[in-house]
Amino acid sequence: MKAWHTERGGALPRLAVASASASSDEELCRAFLDGDEAAFGALVERYRTLVFSLVRRFAPRPEDAADLAQQAFLRALEASDRIFSRWKLTSPTPFRSWLVRIALNLAKNHARQSHRWRLALLTEVDAAAADTRESPQEALERQERERRLQAAVLALPRRQREVLTLRVDADLPFRDIAETLGITENNAKVQFHHAVKRLKAEVGGAAEEKDE
């Protein structure tokens, strides 16, 4: 497993990684409690992309997002013995929603400390992955769409941005979003649909609603 490195928080310990393809979260949590460090490494590998995508909305610089993602896993690792022992470790274990909550809180704190809420573009394309076949006109049009989308996301009320991020990036069901944010499931749905409606109005349908 690759270790993340950060100036503030050190590096995530180089835990061995077990094959997690046939293991559930609760099985891996149980194995970790029983002393198998590779089980936590498997959980990191399973949710690495999810956590990075989530915090990326609040930290446009990739290096900041990597730092936040590492911090989320470090906090989860530090609290794992205490938290896992509270769970009965029967299906389903709430590891995913617990980890998402840790990552979201870190990301929100990062945004507040920076005195901004700078979200990365919902349709951001990394420069290395950009389609070099597009014409100059197409590139300008794409940049304009991205600019408008960024402005529209930044203009969303805070709760709508949170719900949108958890729904789009974390791909959480509304039930889990509600639990993470401490709101009702219906309120989570309302916030999401308002956010999507606003984005569609601002960018001419650039954001698509996801089916439940």
What can you tell me about this protein's structure?
The protein is an all-alpha fold and 212 residues long. The protein has 2 domains: 5-113, RNA polymerase sigma factor, region 2, helix turn helix motif (Rna Polymerase Sigma Factor, Chain: A), CATH 1.10.1740.10; 134-203, Winged helix-like DNA-binding domain superfamily/Winged helix DNA-binding domain (Arc Repressor Mutant, subunit A, Orthogonal Bundle). Helices cover 61% and strands 2% of the residues. It has 8 helices and 2 strands. The chain has helices at 25-33, 37-56, 62-86, 95-113, 136-154, 158-168, 174-181, 185-203; strands spanning 5-6, 10-11. It has a two-stranded antiparallel sheet with strand order 1-2. Helix 3 packs across helix 4 and helix 7 crosses helix 8. The longest helix has 25 residues, at 62-86. The two termini are 33 Å apart.
